[in-house]
Amino acid sequence: MIAQAIVIQKDKILMVRQYVQRGDVVWNFPGGGIEAGETPEQACLREVKEETGYDVRIKHRLILTPKKHTFIAEVVGGKLYLDRGMKENSDIIDVAWVALTDFDKFDSFTRPMLLLLDKSGAK
Question: What is the three-class DSSP state of 75?
Fold first, then answer.
């Protein structure tokens, strides 16, 4: 299972550019695997910190699918930073705040989450 966060500030969304298993390079929401003994929420907080440098607070779960917990979160501390020294970040190329209107950054996995976010009124 995966836990990931959607974090929006001032019409921008926090994303990581990374290599994915299917071999592509994509912009994705920060997140990753849930480790033994972790709750999905704990995994989400840890993954966002590891991948972006930010401490976040989970506001609520947006959706649960068979493979993924997606949470809405907000930044409560830290600063934007990609720790390239962590082996867990070896698949990450960049981390950035992406404009919600930069549609070419969103793919068939991330775009539906934004549509769901619009419908939920959570933005």
Answer: strand
